[in-house]
Structure formats: structure tokens, C-alpha cells
Design brief:
Elements lengths: L1 H29 L1 H17 L9 E6 L17 H18 L3 E4 L16 H15 L4 E8 L10 E5 L3 H18 L8 E3 L10 E8 L3 H7 L2 H20 L21
Parallel strand pairs: 1-2, 1-3, 3-6, 4-5
Antiparallel strand pairs: 4-6
Length: 266
């Protein structure tokens, strides 16, 4: 009985040895590409364990306009900003998720957030519904994506707006503005500005990002390029990462503005 067991163990050992030798032969025959494949798989496993500095944050990403409301229009291309805004917003969403944030989108396709014939102005209902999405999801931050335009064609450069007088918004806007200057290297380097925009009055750090001017021929051409819009999204998210990394106690946001009583209009 013992002799039979010994013979089985010897045969099993030989089979394992042959299997290992065949695997080694195949790997050597495959050459560098096989090694790269195994290395790539190992890298992918490591990437899933990478630090996620935005974990714990819920960030609302708002693609401006949509549906009947096209927003600004390219002077040369005739392209409405609504689609460009959404494209940048979806890239921002993907990057924020990769860094660990929970992301709330106010829209994910070409539609407005209002009824066809509402009892109040369409734009007001649209903004109220965007605000409601942000509120019910308890967002910690709002990033609203837009494209700019101006009567003259010489104005250019990305610009970030925050709620006037809100230190929390100003800090976030400054970080994103600087990151966009570094990332996009615009001809005109603008500074973050305070503004009076509905989407910035919800009681959390909020910014409205104008990615560039569709009224400027050269900048419009860049904004029409997928790679440039992706770079804009990367710069926005880098600004959020820079903000998050600040070694300081961040100021609080101004209280939310109650606009539920705003009257009907056209």
C-alpha cells in the first residue's frame, strides 16, 4: 500500500513539473508582450487600492442649460453650449468618482428640468428642480459647468464664479481657477469673481465654471475638441483636489437663500 502511494506521489510531482515547464516555455515564447500583460494586470490591481482623497464628499455636478435652453452659441460653429456643458460635466463626474467622491448629476442628457407649460417661468422651475436634486442628496459642494460669451470677440479664458461674500465659495473658486490656468494655459489669465447666480445660493461651497468663451474664435475652436474639454474637466477636478488638500480649517458657506416664493413670469 505504501509503495503504491509513493508511486502516485512521484507521478503527481512529475506532472506538476511538466506543467510548470510548459508554462515557462510559453511565457518565454510570448516574450515582452506577455510580461507586459502580467505587469499591466498587477498595476490594475494596485490602482484599485489607490488613495481616494475625496471619499466622504458628495459633490453635485450641474451641466448648465439643456433641452429648450441651449445657452450660449458658438459664433463660428453654431454649436449650443448645453451639449458642451454636459460633456465636460460627465468627464468631471468620472474623475470625481475615481477619487472617491459620491457624485450627484442634475442632468445626464439633453433635457431641461421643467414642464412644457409650467405655472412659473420655465427657467425658474428648471433652477428650482436642480436645487431640489442637490438638496435632497445632501450635497457638500456644487460645481456648475457652463460656456461663456461676450458681445466682443476678444474676451477669452476660463473664469470661475462664487457667491458674492461667501468665503467658502471664494476659496473653492480660487483653487479651481488656478488649476484651470495651469492646466489650460489660456491666453488671458482671469481671477475668480463673486456673482449672483441661483445655483450658488444653496448653502454649500459652490462654483459656476465658465470653461471658455464661445464668442472667441480661437477658444471656441479649442472647446470644440474632445481632448480640450477633457483637459478642462481634469483641471476642474484638480482644483477640487487642491482645495481638499489645503492644510487649514475651511470657512463655512453662507446660509441658503429661500427662493420658493419667487413670482411667476413669462
Amino acid at each position: 500500500m505504501a509503495g503504491k502511494r509513493d508511486r502516485v506521489q512521484v507521478m503527481a510531482g512529475l506532472l506538476l513539473g511538466v506543467t510548470a515547464l510548459c508554462s515557462l516555455t510559453l511565457l518565454l515564447a510570448a516574450g515582452t508582450s506577455a510580461v507586459q500583460t502580467f505587469a499591466g494586470a498587477h498595476t490594475a490591481i494596485q490602482a484599485t487600492a489607490a488613495p481616494q482623497p475625496l471619499r466622504g464628499l458628495t459633490i453635485a455636478v450641474d451641466a448648465g442649460h439643456g433641452g429648450y435652453d441651449g445657452g450660449a452659441v458658438g459664433r463660428v460653429s453654431g454649436v449650443a453650449e448645453k451639449g458642451l456643458n454636459l460633456d465636460v460635466a460627465l468627464h468631471v463626474q468620472k474623475l470625481l468618482l475615481a477619487h472617491g467622491a459620491d457624485v450627484v448629476m442634475t442632468r445626464t442628457d439633453d433635457y431641461a428640468l421643467c414642464d412644457d407649460d409650467p405655472p412659473i417661468r420655465k427657467k425658474l422651475q428648471d433652477m428650482q428642480r436642480r436645487a431640489e436634486i442637490i438638496r435632497i442628496n445632501d450635497a457638500d459642494m456644487v460645481i456648475s459647468i457652463h460656456m461663456n460669451e461676450y458681445a466682443g470677440r476678444s474676451e477669452s479664458g476660463p473664469q470661475v464664479f462664487y457667491r458674492e461674500g461667501c468665503p467658502a465659495g471664494r476659496l473653492l473658486a480660487g483653487a479651481i481657477q488656478e488649476a484651470m490656468i495651469r492646466g489650460l494655459r489660456p491666453d488671458k489669465e482671469r481671477t475668480a469673481l463673486g456673482g449672483d447666480y441661483y445655483i450658488l445660493t444653496l448653502g454649500v461651497p459652490s462654483v459656476l465654471v465658465e470653461c471658455g468663451f464661445l464668442s472667441n474664435r480661437e477658444e471656441e475652436a479649442r472647446l470644440m475638441q474632445e481632448d480640450y474639454r477633457r483637459l478642462a474637466a481634469q483641471s476642474i477636478v484638480q482644483g477640487v483636489l487642491d482645495w481638499q488638500a489645503l492644510k487649514m480649517e475651511k470657512p463655512g458657506a453662507l446660509a441658503a437663500v429661500d427662493r420658493s416664493g419667487e413670482e411667476t413670469g413669462d
